[in-house]
Design a protein that fits this description.
The protein is 40% helix and 18% strand. The chain is built from ten helices and ten strands. β8 (226-229) and β9 form a beta hairpin. α1 packs across α6, α2 crosses α5 and α5 crosses α10 (280-293).
């Protein structure tokens, strides 16, 4: 039995309020962060395009049944979605790396990378939704507009993190010719990143990569006997002279950043690195501006 819109919204609010002590502070912080970025008038709503048919596209995982054009689908063996121009132009899909690697912090007084990535994603969603955009989370929540969508996004991001050591971008549910944001430390296999960007590019999706690193991962402040162990415990290396590894580590990190920038440029995306020890405002403004340029 289906619920009425009023009951559904009431149930959504109740579930959001019952998420405990972790979600409300994150949402409040995201709202405050978004408020510090003075963007003026968004100007994202474009009159006259809302009812203009643009194209049929094959249905993707994450598309709801009501999005299917059953008349068009009946003429083939596949399901098709009828897209209007504004749906693609104003749809942004977020992917926030849920892997174990993102739980790292080099200082007990500093939040882990995952917290900063979720904060940036939620704050960006606040700005986009207020501007009339449709925002979703890849593989978890289809792009939608409205205040209720913010509760959905926050609830998804507040869920349990994944069990994988390193994350691979998810592209399910992205709107063709829409936009996307990938937030990760990108310290795993770059072939997975390249494949994710290729899948997005095949759908005409433009977007941004935001590499979130802890300052310790950027500076490598280690010396003497040190045991390096991955957050998931699958990788371990012990050395008596950690300082001797610094130059090689920094060189490999620089090569990785260059590779990520090259992969991004190849598909028309933008790339930046953000440190959890730096204020989040600059990264948020950069991401919003980069998405503006990708429209």
């Amino acid at each position: 039995m289906s619920q009425s819109p009023a009951n559904l919204n009431a149930d959504l609010r109740a579930r959001a309020e019952g998420l405990g002590q972790t979600l409300p502070p994150l949402l409040a912080e995201a709202e405050m962060l978004a408020a510090t970025v003075m963007l003026g008038e968004h100007g994202r709503r474009r009159a006259g395009l809302g009812d203009e048919f643009w194209q049929y596209r094959p249905a993707h995982q994450g598309d709801s049944a009501r999005m299917i054009d059953w008349r068009r689908s009946a003429r083939s063996d596949a399901h098709f979605v009828r897209e209007r121009e504004w749906q693609a132009a104003q749809s942004v899909t977020l992917w926030v790396d849920p892997s174990k690697s993102m739980s790292f912090t080099g200082d007990k007084g500093r939040a882990p990378k995952s917290d900063r990535a979720k904060l940036l994603a939620l704050a960006l969603a606040v700005l986009l939704l207020r501007g009339g955009e449709r925002v979703g989370i890849a593989g978890m929540a289809a792009p939608r507009a409205g205040k209720a969508q913010m509760l959905r996004l926050a609830a998804r991001l507040a869920g349990d993190d994944g069990a994988e050591e390193y994350g691979a971008p998810v592209t399910e549910g992205m709107m063709s010719h829409g936009r996307a944001v990938f937030l990760s430390d990108f310290l795993g296999d770059l072939a997975a990143v390249e494949a994710g960007l290729a899948r997005a590019a095949d759908r005409g999706v433009k977007g941004v990569l935001i590499q979130v690193l802890d300052p310790a991962e950027e500076d490598f402040p280690f010396d003497g006997r040190t045991i390096f162990e991955s957050m998931g415990g699958t990788l371990r290396h012990e050395t008596q002279q950690a300082g001797d590894l610094r130059a090689r580590y920094l060189a490999r990190l620089a090569e990785r950043k260059d590779r990520l920038a090259t992969l991004s440029r190849a598909v028309g995306w933008h790339f930046t690195t953000h440190h959890t020890g730096s204020p989040a405002q600059a990264a948020l403004l950069w991401a919003y501006s980069a998405l503006e340029g990708g429209r």
